[in-house]
Specification:
Helices cover 28% and strands 19% of the residues. By secondary structure, it is of the alpha+beta class. The strands form two sheets. A two-stranded antiparallel sheet has the order 1-4.
């Protein structure tokens, strides 16, 4: 099962929820906005990304 995770940086507010929940996948860039540093590699990563997506207050994380 391959999925792709994306962050719409244009609308990211840099709250840090995704980075706190899933630091192996998300990180902050120099603008203090989230980006995907690693794509999920296993079921645990996918579960983590789904939790981060649910926690995002501006719904900028997409899973395809």
């Amino acid at each position: 099962m391959w999925i792709t995770v994306k962050v719409d940086r244009k609308w990211c507010i840099g709250c840090g929820a995704c980075v706190a929940i899933c630091p192996n996948i998300f990180d902050f860039d120099e603008e203090k906005k989230s980006y995907v540093k690693n794509q999920p590699e296993n079921d645990s990563d996918i579960e983590c990304v789904e939790q981060a997506k649910s926690a995002c207050p501006v719904d900028v994380i997409s899973i395809n």
